[in-house]
Amino acid sequence: MPTPLFLGEFEQVVLLAILRLGDTAYGVTIRNEIAAQTDREPTPGALYTTLDRMEAKGLITSKLGEATPERGGRSKRYVKVTAKGLEAISRAQRSFQKLLKGLQLPGSAHA
Fold it and tell me: How far apart are CA 57 and CA 53, in angstroms?
């Protein structure tokens, strides 16, 4: 049985943003989704380093879209969560839910 992958907090945030965005997930939309949902604005370098690392781990795949004039002829790198990535984020979120069960945190609906 393979050893499960454990995700860092930012990897979880990125994976959840990609899942929320579906087929429109690429660097700019991922950064915007993270900013909109978490009030934190990751730098492009931090995001792309994380995307590269997650792709190397098999958590996501990427493909290049069409080059567009408004991007100076550069292509968008679209990303998708793999089955391995979905399993990893599901396991991480189940763990957090178990830890939160029975706790009442300030500003939280968990109990």
Answer: 6
